[in-house]
């Protein structure tokens, strides 16, 4: 009996090893090249408040603003105004209190089928195109791809990623700024502060079904086991990066959809960019584009493939790449 159990255990180990080899081969063969840093001709411009086209700046230009806020938006005509009203109210009051503070908000319409761009452009007309700009993508790239396009068009010394649903209270940007400053001295001027909902985990579990809770724990386990160590919440859409950290990480990004946050932080840890995780106020907002089961399944596959593709050399990290 013992001999049979040993044989079965050995067979199981062989099958697991064979499965890992097969998955690694599939990951290597199916690995796409790094998403091209290329803009459609129409994506090289933005329309100013007067309706005239102007050329977008580049992340590799010298910064001219203290803060850039990048808002990825896909079919967000209904939720975007609430977020924009809160953000701009805060930013305007901060600038009034401190005239040296300068900012811009870049709304990236990720190929929406609704009136997202028109809704966003009203804020451009109200506040001026020096403060609010709308970048309309010709096709849907995914959240990560949309943020990257906004980041590469930004002028800020610091760049904030903020979701269009307004789930995170915008004034919490001050918490991220403090977290970023606490990381000084920054190596090569690079640092990242991640908003975190980890402190709300017990409360969220109480409201979720057992199935969604199981998916959440499974995803968190895969993140920590395969990709990112020491960060409890990689998926919060509220992140603040120095300009140098943004150019380094986003120019190396492969994943453009939901799991892009994980690869972004994986890249940051690879380059030894210091990361702070900061608790923020967060409220779940209806209208999420995330389909629980299939989105989590896709992200789980992406996590496994992120690890395997870097491990096998199918993907390699480079210092910087410029967009054309």
Automatic annotation (TrEMBL):
Question: What SUPFAM superfamilies does its record include?
Answer: Nucleotide-diphospho-sugar transferases (SSF53448)
Q: Name one GO cellular component term.
A: cytoplasmic side of rough endoplasmic reticulum membrane
Membrane topology term: Single-pass membrane protein
Gene Ontology biological process terms from the UniProt entry: determination of left/right symmetry; dolichol-linked oligosaccharide biosynthetic process
Q: Where in the cell is it found?
A: Endoplasmic reticulum membrane
Pathway info? Protein modification; protein glycosylation
- Transferase as a keyword of this entry, yes or no, is yes
Matching InterPro entries: DPG_synthase, Glyco_trans_2-like, Nucleotide-diphossugar_trans
Give the residue spans that cross the bilayer.
none
- EC nos: 2.4.1.117
Q: Which reaction does it catalyse?
A: a di-trans,poly-cis-dolichyl phosphate + UDP-alpha-D-glucose = a di-trans,poly-cis-dolichyl beta-D-glucosyl phosphate + UDP
Q: What is this protein called?
A: Dolichyl-phosphate beta-glucosyltransferase
Q: Which organism is it from?
A: Heterocephalus glaber
């Amino acid at each position: 009996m013992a001999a049979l159990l040993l044989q079965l255990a050995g067979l199981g180990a062989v099958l697991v090893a064979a499965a890992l080899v097969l998955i690694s081969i599939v990951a290597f063969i199916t690995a796409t090249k790094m998403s091209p840093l290329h803009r459609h001709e129409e994506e090289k411009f933005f329309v100013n408040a007067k309706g005239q086209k102007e050329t977008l700046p580049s992340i590799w230009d010298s910064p001219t603003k203290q803060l850039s806020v990048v808002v990825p938006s896909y079919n967000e005509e209904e939720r975007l105004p609430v977020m924009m009203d809160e953000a701009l109210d805060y930013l305007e009051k901060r600038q009034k209190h401190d005239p040296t503070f300068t900012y811009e908000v870049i709304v990236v319409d990720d190929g929406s089928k609704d009136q997202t761009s028109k809704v966003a452009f009203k804020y451009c007309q109200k506040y001026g195109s020096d403060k609010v700009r709308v970048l309309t993508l010709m096709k849907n790239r995914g959240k990560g791809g949309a943020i990257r396009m906004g980041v590469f068009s930004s002028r800020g010394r610091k760049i904030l990623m903020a979701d269009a649903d307004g789930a995170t209270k915008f004034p919490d940007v001050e918490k991220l700024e403090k977290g970023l400053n606490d990381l000084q001295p920054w190596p090569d001027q690079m640092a990242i502060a991640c908003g975190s909902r980890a402190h709300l985990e017990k409360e969220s579990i109480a409201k979720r079904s057992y199935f969604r809770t199981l998916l959440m724990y499974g995803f968190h386990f895969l993140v920590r086991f395969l990709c990112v160590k020491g960060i409890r919440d990689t998926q919060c859409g509220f992140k603040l990066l120095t300009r140098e950290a943004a150019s380094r990480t986003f120019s190396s990004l492969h994943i453009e959809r939901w799991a892009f946050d994980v690869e972004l932080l994986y890249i940051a840890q690879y380059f030894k960019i210091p990361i702070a995780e900061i608790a923020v106020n967060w409220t779940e907002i209806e209208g999420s584009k995330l389909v629980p089961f299939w989105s989590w399944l896709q992200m789980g596959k992406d996590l496994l493939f992120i690890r395997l593709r870097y491990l096998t050399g199918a993907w390699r990290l480079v210092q910087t790449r410029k967009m054309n």
